[in-house]
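Consider this record:
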Amino acid sequence: NNPPYNTGAFRFELTFSPHHPLEPPRATLRTPIHHPSVDLQGRVCQPLTTNAHWKPTTRAIQVLQDLLLQLDSPDPQRVLRPDVARELQERPEEFRRRAEEDTRLHAEPR
């Protein structure tokens, strides 16, 4: 709901292993995005779904809510693209411009 991503709809895939719920699902963003917590392959830095933090009682809706919060409000502690994180911290106007441009080019209109 917040700029710079609020004008687009982003596709992602949630993959469950045969060992779920003992193993966490994997979230992959299928829409390219200029975001410090999403790498160029669409992998998301989401501690909730790491083996160290995963609990078998965690529900899929919690994973989705955490993912949406992460995308909506970038966390400088959850970084897969250090260059983008640095841009967000040092040149926020440039970060926003590039994120809005990527959203316009790749996301589905909302």
User: Anything to note?
Assistant: Residues 11 and 30 are 5 Å apart (CA to CA). DSSP finds three helices and four strands in the chain. The radius of gyration is 14 Å. Strands lie at 8-9, 12-15, 26-29, 108-109.
